[in-house]
Amino acid sequence: MTRIIGKETSRVDGVAKVTGKAKYAAEFQVPDLAYGFIVLGTIAKGTITAMDTREAEASPGVLRVLTHLNAPRLGPKQSTEEAPPTARRERDKSFRALQSDQIFFNAQPVALVVAETYEQARHAARLVRVTYREEPHHTDTETAQGRARPPSQGRPQTPRGDPDTALRDAEVKVVAEYHIPIEHHNPMEPHASIAVWQGDRLTVFDKTQTVFTVRTHLASGFGIPEANVSVVSPFVGGAFGSSLRPHYHPALTAMAAREIRRPVKVVLTRRQMYTAHGYRPHTVQRIALGADRAGRLSAMIHEAVHNTSSFEEFSDDTTGFTRQVYACPNLSAPLRVTQTDLPTPTWMRAPGAVSGMFALESAMDELSYALRMDPLALRLANYAETDPESGKPFSSKALRECYRLGAEKFGWKDRNPEPRSMRDGRLLVGWGMATGVWGAMQMPATARITFRADGTAHVASGTSDIGPGTYTVMTMIAAEYLGLNLEQVEFELGDTRFPQAPSQGGSWTTSSVGSAVYGAALAVTGRLLALANRDTSSPLRGAAAADVEMLEGRLRLKADPSRSVSIAEVMRRNDLAEITETYESKPSPERDKYALLAHGAQFVEVKVDPDLGTVRVTRAIEVTACGKIINPKASHSQEIGGVVWGIGMALQEATEIDHRYGRIMNPNLQHYHVPVNADVHMIETLFVEEDDTIVNPLGVKGMGELGMVGIPAAIANAVFHATGKRIRELPITPDKLL
């Protein structure tokens, strides 16, 4: 039964967003609201020796100035880290504001001014005087590599085979080093919280990808039961990982509200965001590939170092996917982290994967030129039919078809392999390609459906929607299996009152929450069947729940739709106005027998001005194999967004740090460059659907992060083909090409 799933569907929340009806964290109306403004420190490491807040406190409208000297101490933190099991950490050492005189990074919050209006708070924040004792700091990952060590947690880094010997004996070798700077998320909506206390009960409106971890974070910090904390976050204006963990501002806002006994709102400025929610870490990677003359890999050595903070270990598993992409018997992929006096990095769209695959796929391109072999042919020569790491079969893998379809659509056969050989007038034309990969993950999730006798349904789960279209997809799944139209289903999310769900991260939301909605819909069907079969004359007697379906107000036998009953009549007869079913979906044990990945292939054209060194991505074709496509319209949008971000990562994005001061120098949208309309030309996204009943009941795999993974490498490879210059340090800016 497919009526809705797989159809192009516009966002059910689209009208609310364009009319302003959709409320974001800072937009909730709360009576008697006060406003907080954060004061940032000006040194990278040391201690605060004096705080002069007298002028600020005397400023008009100021209600309180909180510093480490008068801020209440928060209780021990329960860990709220939610990430793939390989990346899970034991203890929560995340930064908390105003809890000591110690300075860990430049632009660290050192005070919070609370006033009657936002403008009064902002003005008074400029009057706070802070004196420091500075200590020597280190913020340059490149010079801190010598102190790097393996992360204390994560997947084992055991080599496969004997990569050193295999590399030494290889007929053809490529050895190269690749660099990626710190990058920041820059979502459209700034991070914000509103905190309201009613006795010992706390309500927080927060920009978050997971209301439940914010609840845990606040309950443990303030020493109150989780049942006393309500977190609300129905709409999120972009996050991409920047709201996966609770950062310092929700607790700081709640602390201020409790101190002044009034609701408080804190909205971060762009400057404040750059040290408030993490970033993609600075990464240095060294890759050595060995192959025979036919291009078959015999050795892969992929070493990576990235920065973390001085107070907390973070690892994004940069080299993890290298182990699973190509068939190679000898492999080493160690990752090390090094401490810097900067905030802790965090998950950022396609964490680890896009960084690691930039280096690996660039190195594969370099190997293709060393072999004088087509880059696509090289990848096909090393195609992994089973998982090279575990030896397990893939639950599904249509990557070969992605390569074929992408090459055909792009016209890859017409590529002249010689660098600088293709032109459009005076512009140099380059074609490059790469492979993308991401995990097909699923997390436990719960959904609740209330089905009403009038043929409408309310569906709820405490998940999030940071922009991919979760409201729409969950509405579609519920409508499909309840036999309703979209307008008959209301789906709600983003509230701790709703059933437990994982964060929106890891590209696992549809597989996790969607499976829960599907399970709850089947439970409603089963309940209706049991009620119908109380009637001895029911045409469905003897049927199992799996044999029936709901459609157009009737419960009917799939094999014989003429055998059916009226759902409204069944409910009326049993004196029921509504039926509520709650269902928890969990990953199936069957998943453990397989390697579970989503794959993609990217083909890119660039045009380079040889005099100016400017690069334009004029054509991109992305072909993705990620199981079943629920909503093609939203799915294409997701993949286009991934390509656009890949363009930004390859050509524009870099967080610039002046290491003399350990200070971020471009913490705004004027000087941190991201793609705009003029940077984006033709992008075509295609899907190769896979029939995969192992990953989850819906057969879906994550795509939101996959769409970005291979793009920076494909662009870099196209730039080399156009210019003959191999740029191994992102972003590829004109100065590196001239």
Automatic annotation (TrEMBL):
A GO MF term: xanthine dehydrogenase activity
Chain ranges of the Aldehyde oxidase/xanthine dehydrogenase a/b hammerhead domain: 19-136
Basic and acidic residues biased stretches: 132-141
E.C. number: 1.17.1.4
Region of interest: Disordered: 70-92, 132-165
A Pfam family the protein falls into: Ald_Xan_dh_C
SMART domains assigned to the protein according to its UniProt record, in alphabetical order: Ald_Xan_dh_C
Keywords: Oxidoreductase
Protein name per the record: Xanthine dehydrogenase YagR molybdenum-binding subunit
Source organism: Longimicrobium terrae
Taxonomic lineage: Bacteria, Pseudomonadati, Gemmatimonadota, Longimicrobiia, Longimicrobiales
